[in-house]
Amino acid sequence: MHQPSIDAELLPALAVPDLQRTLPRESAAFVRVDTSLRTYWHTLFDVCPELLTLADPDGLRIFQPFMAWAAAERLTMNWTFYIWAYRWLCQSEFADRLPDGLAQSMLAASAARWATVDRGRHAGIVLTDACAALPTLVVGWKCDRVDGARRVERIGLEEPLDAPPGRFGHFLVPGFSLDTFPGWMAIPR
């Protein structure tokens, strides 16, 4: 059996975790793929540990089908990672057992991830869930001073804004105050 010799040959095993099983457990290729997938596993379950109560203790009944779906949908694993995980959960075997508030928690995780990894000129991101019981914004802010910290806040609205183009929407905030509503953009794939 041909063993992958370069990392580029391992990409299919990253996109479809079931392909990892075709690699001998003691091979360097298995270790590289396993290490890469563990990063995504920890990204999901360390931030949203309540997901582990839905399935098996190691979360693989959630993680592996989600990763396969994300690969098939050609989704990015940037700040949108948690939103895509939630969208997958809503159409999975776990849909009827999702805890209240999970959508808001996963939006907050997405906002925090954006505030951590985005290197653009915008200071904040605003996310919403069109299916939320009450109109709520989840806002992620970058640091606004050297000794500051990134932060995420939820803002309840008295009146709903226009609906986003899908279930979830976002817009970027140029400065450190939320004083305009430019309209919702779709979540990027």
* Fraction of helical residues: 25-40%
Outline the low-pLDDT stretches: none
Radius of gyration: 18 Å
Strand order of the largest sheet: 3-2-1-4-5
Number of strands: 5
Please state the overall shape, judged from the principal axes of the Cα atoms. globular
Question: Secondary-structure element sequence?
Answer: HHHHHEEEEE
Strand proportion: 5-15%
* Total individual domains: 2
Main sheet: strands, sense, barrel: 5 strands, antiparallel
Class by helix and strand content?
A: alpha+beta
Terminus-to-terminus distance: 36 Å
The number of helices is 5
Residue-averaged pLDDT: 88
Write structural notes for this entry.
This protein is of the alpha+beta class. Helices cover 33% and strands 14% of the residues. It has helices at residues 11-15, 28-45, 60-73, 81-90, 102-117, and strands spanning 124-129, 136-141, 151-156, 168-173, 185-186. Helix 3 packs across helix 4 (81-90) and helix 4 (81-90) packs antiparallel against helix 5. The longest helix has 18 residues, at 28-45.
